[in-house]
Write a structure and sequence with these properties.
- The complex is a heterodimer of chains A (289) and B (352).
- Chain A is mainly α and 289 residues long.
- Chain A has helices at 2-42, 52-59, 61-94, 97-112, 115-126, 131-138, 152-176, 180-188, 193-221, 225-230, 238-248, 252-277, 279-284.
- In chain A, helix 3 packs antiparallel against helix 4 (97-112).
- Helix content of chain B is 40%, strand content 18%.
- Chain B is built from 13 helices and nine strands.
- The chains are: A mainly alpha (289), B alpha/beta (352).
- The A-B interface holds A 60-62, 65-66, 127-129, 149-150, 228-229, 232-234, 236, 241, 244, 246-252 and B 2, 76-78, 81, 100, 103-104, 107, 174-175, 214-215, 217, 221, 228-230, 339-340, 343-344, 347-348, 350-351.
Chain lengths: 289, 352
């Protein structure tokens, strides 16, 4: 008896929660799902239904090559962001209030500066007669300028700089929530600092890692300005081609088809990651009732 | 050309304005265009210094003569397509990149122009097309940094593509359009025989400079790269380099073999006030107005007599028409038909 009451009470609670989310769902459907559906519909041709755009994508090797470059770059940038962002978030979460505030400001202020301006700034730094080359030459460390622009190196730097806050902030939030006493408990059971980190802290921070990496990867897939300004012709990313088809060539079915392919790839990778890592479990941990 | 090209040329605009205010702009003995009962025209244009020049030479004088209020909007080919397809027309007239106008015209998104109103016979050959008419012409030129290119400067596209005579990095426009043409001109193709393009030949010429190419997308980028010494030579639109050259920066260029690119006036299909819009276009074709335009920005209008009243120092800064100089006008219709295939091939070539 008591069990039945609990179940129906739980169902009523769930229904109330669902009703609360209806405004959001309606907004989401109208302002996001509907336009995306329109774009996907457009990929089937300007008049009527045709698969010409998709055939063009399959038959032209350019699009596959660019898609691979995009995936490769996004993955590289995600890994670099994780390697740089995790220690930073760790320090921020362990630091005293003053240092934490300073670090937070250092992460957020570049975040608020326009991406276009930041990309131009990297050009000023990295180019042949740029600040870095000039300084190195004046210090006598190099004889002729280093080629740091218009290659995967410059693209990776620019994109990492832009995307770092997206991994630091979720990680920071998750790490703040990790109970310090668990580490003390581990210590009392004989775990050294390395074991404390490896066996307690790291697994508990995994939701932040997964959320941050997912965010960075998806954003990196769609990046356009930074590779356009900092990259060479071989660093072309798919969003640049979508922009070309939309604005200059006015081939909207093709642009829509490319977008559809990108969307499918991103969703496909999410599903794959879910199978491998168990996304639900990784993101929500043991907190889901 | 697109509006991004003009966003950084504010300095040039103000210099042009200074020069232009010295010339009287009285509308003496001008016949007022017949606009009927139209009160207001919405004209989309690319903004920046080009927009300022339009305003000075065309919009303001037109308003003065006819009493029609001209409201400006930001021009964009994709937006025009969206407007015409949805039936929600916000513009009466648009200035577009000529290549965009050709391709949009081919997609049946423009009104055919009325050449009984617009004086086609006064215009440079091929500037008056079925769905658009050229508004202004700029030149894609060979430019170089005088600091890095010591000795005899490049004087033609053949020099530009000669890596032995002119070693160094070359700034190149990252589109098939214009780049393929200059490659063919470099290989000795006669300007009368340029179109249809011998694409294979063009790509083999481009192969010569591939390793020394620095690719740029926008006019602002091209001049910045040249000024910074990131490029030693560059493809350059004359409007971008004139002001820095006048300011004494170490850059120079030549109009020899310059490829003429253009903006165009076009009327979106379904515009109700199209007769008044045609009258505006006809007004913009007047030699007197185009002379004012060329003083505000170093581009020429399509009227063959537009530069007659200008002094020689100013004329030297303007791209010569094909009749007068060694320049060649780009064939926008060709690109409307072929840009998709050639862009794919160009993108592929860039990747390998």
């Amino acid at each position: 008896m008591a069990v039945d009451l609990n179940v129906s009470a739980e169902r009523a609670a769930n229904r109330r929660l669902f009703l609360l989310s209806v405004p959001l769902l309606v907004t989401f459907a109208a302002l996001f799902m509907y336009p995306v559906a329109r774009v996907l519909w457009r990929s089937l041709g300007d008049n009527g239904l045709s698969l010409i755009a998709y055939q063009q994508i399959i038959n032209t090797p350019v699009y596959q090559a660019v898609m691979l470059t995009t995936l490769r770059t996004a993955m590289l940038v995600t890994i670099i962001c994780l390697l740089l962002g995790y220690p930073l978030a760790y320090v921020m979460s362990q630091a005293g209030r003053a240092l934490r505030l300073v670090l937070l400001v250092l992460v957020l202020v570049p975040f608020w500066v326009s991406l276009l301006i930041r990309s131009y700034a990297w050009m000023v730094l990295l180019q042949r007669n740029g600040m870095i080359n000039d300084t190195l030459r004046q210090l006598g460390l190099i004889a002729s300028p280093l080629d740091m622009m218009r290659n995967p190196f410059s693209v990776a730097i620019g994109m990492t700089h832009a995307l770092l806050p997206y991994i630091v902030l979720p990680l920071f939030a998750v790490m703040l929530g990790i109970d310090r006493r668990l580490l003390q408990a581990a210590a009392s059971l004989g775990a050294g600092p390395v074991a404390q980190f490896w066996r307690i802290f790291l697994p508990l921070s995994l939701p932040g890692v997964v959320a941050g990496c997912l965010l960075v990867f998806i954003l990196a897939l769609g990046f356009f300005i930074t590779p356009s300004l900092l990259g060479g012709p071989r660093d072309t990313m798919i969003a640049m081609l979508v922009a070309q088809e939309t604005s200059r060539l006015l081939n909207w079915p093709l642009a829509s088809a490319l977008s559809a392919v990108l969307l499918t790839v991103a969703l496909g990778l999410y599903v794959l990651a879910d199978r491998l890592v168990g996304m639900d479990q990784a993101l929500w941990g043991g907190r889901r009732t | 050309m697109n509006r991004r090209r003009f966003l950084e040329v504010g300095l040039m605009g103000s210099m042009g304005l200074l020069a232009a205010t010295a010339v009287p702009t009285l509308a003496l003995a001008q016949t007022a265009p017949n606009v009927g009962s139209v009160q207001q025209l919405v004209i989309a244009q690319g903004g920046g210094a080009l927009g300022d020049a339009y305003r000075k030479a065309y919009f303001d004088p037109f308003s003065q003569l006819t009493g029609v209020k001209i409201v400006e909007a930001d021009s964009d080919a994709a937006k025009l397509k969206a407007m015409v397809e949805s039936g929600n027309l916000e513009w009466d007239l648009a200035q577009l990149d000529a290549g965009d106008a050709a391709s949009v015209g081919k997609q049946n998104l423009l009104e055919p122009l009325d050449y009984s109103v617009i004086p086609k016979e006064q215009l440079i050959t091929d500037t008056a097309q079925e769905h658009y008419v050229i508004a202004d012409v700029a030149g894609l030129t060979v430019a170089w940094n005088t600091g890095s290119v010591t000795g005899a400067p490049p004087s033609s596209w053949s020099d530009f593509f000669d890596v032995n005579a002119f070693p160094g990095r070359r700034g190149m426009l990252k589109t098939a359009g214009q780049t393929l043409e200059v490659a063919l001109l470099a290989d000795g193709v006669d300007r009368a025989a340029l179109y249809p393009l011998d694409v294979d030949r063009a790509f083999s010429v481009l192969d010569r400079v591939k390793s020394s190419a620095v690719w740029w997308d926008s006019g602002a980028q091209s001049i910045q790269l040249l000024l910074d010494g990131e490029t030693d030579l560059s493809m350059m639109w004359n409007g971008r380099i004139q002001q820095p050259k006048d300011d004494g920066k170490p850059v120079d260029f030549t109009f020899n073999q310059s490829l003429l690119v253009a903006d165009a006036w076009a009327i979106p299909r379904g515009v109700k006030q199209k007769d008044a819009a045609m009258q505006f276009i006809a007004f913009a074709m007047r030699a007197q107005q185009e002379a004012i335009f060329s003083q505000a920005i170093p581009y020429i209008g399509p009227n063959t007599s537009s530069t007659n009243s200008l002094d020689d120092t100013l004329k030297a800064k303007l791209p010569p028409s094909p009749q007068v100089g060694t320049t060649v006008l780009q064939n926008f219709g060709y690109w409307a038909d072929n840009s998709t295939a050639l862009t794919d091939r160009f993108n592929q070539w860039l990747l390998t």
